[in-house]
Amino acid sequence: MAARLIVRADHGFDGERSLDGAVAVFVEDGRITGVGAGREPPPEGWPVADFPGATVLPGLIDMHVHLCGDGGPNALERLPGFGDDQLAAVIDDGLRRHLAAGVTTVRDLGDRRWAVLERRDAARPGHPTIVASGPPITSVRGHCWHMGGEVAGPDQLRAAVRERAERRVDVVKVMASGGGTTPGSDVLGCQFTLDELRTVVDEAHAAGLSVTAHAHALSAVEQALAAGVDGIEHCSFATVSGVRAPAAVVEDLARQRVVVCPTLGQAVGVAPAPALVAGLARAGLTPETAAQASVQVLAELHRHGVVVVSGTDGGISPAKPHGILPRAVAALLDSGIPAADALSSATAAAAGHCGLAARKGRLRPGLDADLLLVDGDPLTDITALERIRAVIVGGRWLVGGPRGSQQPTVGGPLG
Asked: Which listed CATH number (3.20.20.140, 3.40.50.1820, 3.10.290.10, 1.20.1260.10) goes with 60-353?
């Protein structure tokens, strides 16, 4: 791509709202330098890439992925058997799949042997930005113990947080409840005491790090709130008698400004993992009734002003492969969340929650030129997010390009 370029489309979404009329985004040396009307004649010396019938919006941000997971059966359980070269290949393949879906930034919440953190630090221009937690902190043989983050007792909890701070993680991930993909863990129970969870939060905050908690059980959601976490992953409100979201808990989520990532979306026609189905059955739920309950819970969260961001849990199973973020965004509409808020959950709101608001998530001068071009207008037809015309990362074409151009398409090795 030339050092200068104007990307023009018939519609625009700036990360928070629709832009009136046709839009022109000015890109220079990898940054956005201006956003204007798309019908104005271009300045001299600025090449133009036209996308008729398309919408330009910020590159998407998937707020919950597992780049070490290859999306196959028992993906997380198989991690201890992966060598360094295999882990690196799986990470690159996952990044490639995210790019193909318009995702230019990922937040990885499940590392193994710090491989994703190393990949973050080795990133080169034109590759997706990685926000990384390292291995999630979990109890002994607790959820995702295969990633190497097992601890027991306050001293080990403090040491685990300090190690992550020394390795310069972007966020601390802690498993407050069990999970459906780890046999033997209790989806409906807490993995730590409240004092232990507070130890994680206090140690992380003292190091300037935010904390997000994996929490399916209502008891774990309540515990995470009491401990002062900054975000909750899944936030399923599961109990032995089904899903229950007490008004007081929802109000606390809003009052404490805890950001929720419900990890919606899944591959079409693929059955959920058997362990997950078994876990749902313990709460008297099926995948179908659980999905219906999620819609009702999200409606309550939105009504109370809780900030919701979009993530997929990509990489953990065939039902949750990398590259399905558009389906997670679309799922928010089923709960009555407006299209603009749903799109913001994967752009501006996501960037704000993961500490990248000064670089990503909006069409604003000075921000990175991470752009997504899709056919149609996702504000009126959310499925337009799956009709990718082009993806630009840091001012470079990574997927597609203008009609008739010879720009590269994603598919080869990232390098």
From this structure: 3.20.20.140
